[in-house]
Design the sequence.
């Protein structure tokens, strides 16, 4: 029987495995918090995108579209399109979560996002004892969740007191451009980025602010239909899985 000390060690190991991810995740959370503070939406609503949506790209789209006055149905549709990859993550994790209480599956599924998927998958592949693998997953996932909400909260708090002349509404676009540029070396991601950007420009005057949702759908479709580049593929399965961090 696995001891409580072993579970604690696995929780700590999961948290340590998640720590490198926080180098990129925390600044992104700060940027989202700053943008939520400057957007024309209630500050609490902006912060609540963290625990309610819990997916960086979807939060960016949601805050931006609400700030632009998009119809709620369009905002929800865009968030669902962006998060469609989580269905694949859930299907992969389902075999590891069979036979455990429903409330545990509920919590684990809520915490499932790109970094927690990568850290959890590594633990399930390495640890034979499923209980210890569960502890490893939760250790990383809970640290990520707490760090994400804290980063958004700090960004939103600081953003409220910053002057308007700083034009913080440009922070998220600049951050996303910085994230996208290194990915242009990958043919599939390059095709997705250009397709999304092109549709976004063409659909600037689309009714109900549908341009963002259409651009997201175009980018995903272009990326999925692109021919894989064998030279760019990694030999490590976790690297392939986590090519897109958020």
Sequence:
């Amino acid at each position: 029987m696995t001891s409580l000390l072993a579970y604690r060690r696995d929780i700590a190991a999961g948290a340590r495995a998640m720590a490198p991810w926080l180098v990129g995740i925390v600044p992104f959370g700060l940027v989202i918090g700053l943008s939520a503070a400057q957007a024309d939406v209630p500050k609490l609503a902006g912060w609540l995108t963290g625990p309610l949506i819990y997916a960086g790209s979807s939060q960016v789209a949601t805050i931006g579209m609400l700030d632009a006055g998009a119809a709620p149905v369009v905002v929800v549709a865009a968030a669902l399109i962006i998060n469609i990859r989580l269905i694949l993550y859930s299907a992969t994790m389902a075999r590891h979560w069979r036979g455990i209480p429903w409330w545990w599956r509920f919590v684990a599924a809520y915490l499932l996002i790109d970094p927690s998927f990568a850290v959890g998958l590594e633990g399930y592949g390495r640890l034979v004892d499923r209980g210890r693998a569960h502890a490893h997953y939760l250790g990383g996932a809970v640290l990520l969740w707490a760090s994400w909400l804290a980063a958004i909260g700090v960004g939103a708090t600081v953003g409220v007191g910053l002057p308007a002349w700083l034009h913080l509404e440009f922070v998220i676009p600049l951050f996303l451009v910085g994230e996208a540029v290194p990915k242009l070396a990958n043919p599939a991601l390059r095709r997705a980025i250009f397709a999304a950007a092109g549709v976004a420009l063409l659909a600037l005057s689309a009714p109900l602010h549908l341009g963002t949702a259409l651009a997201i759908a175009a980018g995903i479709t272009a990326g999925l239909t692109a021919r894989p580049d064998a030279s760019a593929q990694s030999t490590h399965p976790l690297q392939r899985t986590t090519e897109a961090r958020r």
Summary: Residues 231-246 have pLDDT under 50 and may be disordered. The two ends are 37 Å apart (CA to CA). DSSP finds twelve helices and no strands in the chain.
